[in-house]
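User: Structure tokens for both sequences below?

Assistant:
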Amino acid sequence: MTTMPLGAQTAVRSTAVAARATDLTKVYGQGETQVVALDRVSVDFRQAEFTAIMGPSGSGKSTLMHCMAGLDTISSGSARIGDTELTGLNDKKLTRLRRDKIGFIFQAFNLLPTLNALENITLPMDIAGRKPDQQWLDQVVETVGLSGRLKHRPSQLSGGQQQRVAVARALASRPEIIFGDEPTGNLDSRSGAEVLGFLRRSVRELGQTVVMVTHDPVAASYADRVVFLADGRIVDDMQAPTADAVLDRMKRFDAKGRTS
């Protein structure tokens, strides 16, 4: 009898929307010092899809992720996670939203050195007073390849292993969406490839939704889709990206910057 691979039910790409920005604008400062970081950005991030956000320095890619994740306020427009509108939520409701519906993976691993890997993975749920779904937790730990390292503290793990703990922590509570801010920026190429492979597996096998900000065309090639920003606006949307295609697109940004 043929065994169906884990998560085969997610093989068909979902058309449901995990997060949506509509005419999202973010302005910093006033008067002569005013900077428009995001200029009426509208974009959907679909469920069970891996999206990379790219653009030149100062294009607004990190600002877009922070606004969508409820880490920064927006000046006008709309940002939604699932059916929840972020605009107007007070600090308590935003904290609950981030805790219950959003996972985060940062460039700095943000692990507590006094806790072992398993304790770091379950920490957000422990703080919320929720018990993890043991079957799901076991599946996540197996997916990221940490089964033999759960009792180790961060100082006993390599950089790649520490970031895998951070990935597992983001996945463990089954959030509606995971946001990654340069999650492989502090890793060597081999460790970075491992983490990106785990993120891609979490989408394809666990049905997770991942949105990642990166400057690396190779990292972007692990995604299903790349959204390109320039000057606070979306200027391109690439499906099934390759590293060469992404690099070519970024070179055109550089060429425009030199001639403008």
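Moving on to the next sequence.
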Amino acid sequence: MDIQVFSPETFEDGAVLDCLREVIAHQEQSSPSEFRTVRLLMALWEAIGSRVRTEGNPEDRGLRAQAQLQRMMQYVHTHYAGKVTLEELAGEVSISKSSAMKLFRQYLHTSPIDYLISYRLKQAAKLLTTTRGSVSAIAEQTGFENVGYFCRKFKAVFSQTPSQYRRESQEP
């Protein structure tokens, strides 16, 4: 492990960051106590050790990976209408782009981009049946910059064009 990234959102990382802040605050005092500094540094090392042990446990690693995947999926659900990049998804949980790809493949058997497109298409299908917006407006609302691409993807997934889908879903 060459680098460690600590995120304040997780309990273990928060404990490490709190210890680190306490060490820094103590050192910034006019005359810091050496004994207190040593005690704080020992607490910091203990917090780091606890985090590393948690990462080493396969069950905890799996839970952590699933939590990271959930956060990335939630990011997609919240930001799907705009430009979403792999870098943003990975940054949401402080992991590399390749790790983000690996998590999506491992648990969802798809890539992050394919997941995003699939989610956008599902949202578009809902809008086609619940609104009167034009196909191009719905494509834009759901994050597709090119209407032709949207229509091709929609037909590949739903086996009909967006207009056909809207007509058939409105028939009694």
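User: Anything stand out in the second?

Assistant: The two ends are 60 Å apart (CA to CA).
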